[in-house]
Amino acid sequence: MGYALRQPNPEDATMDNQSVLALIGPDCTAEQLGPLMERAREVSAHLAMMLVGASPPFPAASYGSPHYGVIAVSDVWQEQYAEGGEALKQKGEEIEALLETHGASGDVSTVYCEPPAMDDAVGRRAKICDLAYVGPDLRAAPAVFDHALRGVLFASPIGAVINGMAPNGSFLPRNVFLAWNTSLPSARAVHAALPTLLAAEQVTVACFDPVMTELRDGENPGSDLAKWLSHHGCTVTVQQYPSGGKEIGACIQDRAQETGADLIVMGAYGHARMREAVFGGTTRSMIQQTGLPVLMAH
């Protein structure tokens, strides 16, 4: 099923003057960041580069210090903390020089704390950006990666893109696969991705195991969304897929590859985070895969 009011023109939907938050770690390289900066320069986007580093855990013994007493912190911890902070500072200076080399608009900030405290810090910066990219180098520290991503998803109103900083990537992909299930996170993901959808040559609205009732997915699942996107000027195709008992995350990946999608758009954590952490789920499987770029929102 297809809907099209007009052929979209990429020039109609650009990232001009948008602020893109790039969450990166201290081990990111110029080879990883250079293509991102070039893409930002080409579409006149501003890069908010945020260096995210985990500080050494605060010594447990210090928590037992008496009230009004002196907190005793080991010299070793203080040295480790200072070394980590200095490394981030030097990396920030390198990134500022790299931005200037590529002629890209941008700024550099740092978050240096224990991972559980990163959510709010990342969220504060994300609140005044249009979209966030989570760097692949953060995967080397799973706790940092998870909390940086959660900061965008749960402490800000914008979407987060994972696996989207490949050298051959694009801010405006041509073929987008939109996994739709009428949930609020899915709707927020669509709104977060709207500039991307407008610039795409093809958008596939995919519904998996839809419940065809008025109170669930509607009599023709995906058609209402397709009409709305078509009104904006997108070229949209609706597909309804049975999972056949297969995990939905795996189904999304398979179907997206079949359509040749450059980007997957989906809602994140439609179920409780604790449930997903214990039993797994679509969001968790999509976060763990590294082969396909995914734009998600909660």
TrEMBL record:
Residues 249-297 form the UspA domain. InterPro entries: Universal_stress_UspA (IPR006015), UspA (IPR006016). Gene3D superfamilies: 3.40.50.12370. Coiled coil: none annotated. Belongs to the universal stress protein A family. This is Universal stress protein. It comes from Sulfitobacter sabulilitoris. The lineage of its organism: Bacteria, Pseudomonadati, Pseudomonadota, Alphaproteobacteria, Rhodobacterales.
